[in-house]
């Protein structure tokens, strides 16, 4: 929607249209790549990376992520 607005403005100024970064179809396809995560559960990504999602509380469905990294086999 933003690109449509921007292109109307650009057209009035005699400028060329710009292409959107992504389409609604692209956004729908991306949904297949999302995985739900449980809050407060430690998730081992590999032997060096552990993460935990926590409720951020300021926006519905938002979260913060804690990340633990091991470097040179040390926490």
What is the molecular shape?
elongated
Uncertain runs with pLDDT below 50, 5 residues or more? none
What order do the SSEs take from the amino end to the carboxyl end, as H and E? HHEEE
Structural class: alpha+beta
Largest sheet: 3 strands, antiparallel
Report the helical percentage.
10-25%
- What's the domain count? 2
* Rg value: 20 Å
Main sheet: which strands, in order across? 1-2-3
Give the N-to-C terminal Cα separation: 46 Å
Strand fraction? 15-25%
Mean pLDDT reading? 92
Number of strands: 3
Number of helices: 2
Summarize the structure.
It contains two helices and three strands; from the N terminus they run ααβββ. It has 75 residues and is an alpha+beta fold. The chain starts with a helix and ends in a 6-residue tail after the last strand.
3D architecture notes:
This protein is of the alpha+beta class and 75 residues long. The protein has a three-stranded antiparallel β-sheet with strand order 1-2-3, with no helix packed on it. It is built from two helices and three strands. It is elongated and about 60 Å long. The N and C termini lie far apart (46 Å). Helix content is 24%, strand content 24%. The chain folds into two domains: 32 residues, no CATH class; 41 residues, no CATH class. A hairpin with a 7-residue loop joins strand 2 and strand 3.
Describe the secondary structure blueprint for this structure.
Layout: H1 2-12, H2 24-30, E1 43-46, E2 49-55, E3 63-69
Antiparallel strand pairs: 1-2, 2-3
Keywords:
75 residues; 2 domains; alpha+beta; 3 strands
């Amino acid at each position: 929607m933003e690109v449509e607005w921007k292109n109307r403005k650009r057209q009035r100024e005699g400028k060329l249209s710009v292409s959107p970064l992504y389409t609604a179809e692209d956004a729908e396809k991306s949904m297949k790549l999302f995985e739900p995560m449980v809050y407060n559960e430690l998730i081992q990504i590999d032997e060096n990376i552990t993460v935990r999602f926590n409720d951020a509380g300021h926006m519905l469905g938002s979260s913060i992520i804690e990340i633990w990294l091991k470097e040179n086999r040390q926490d």
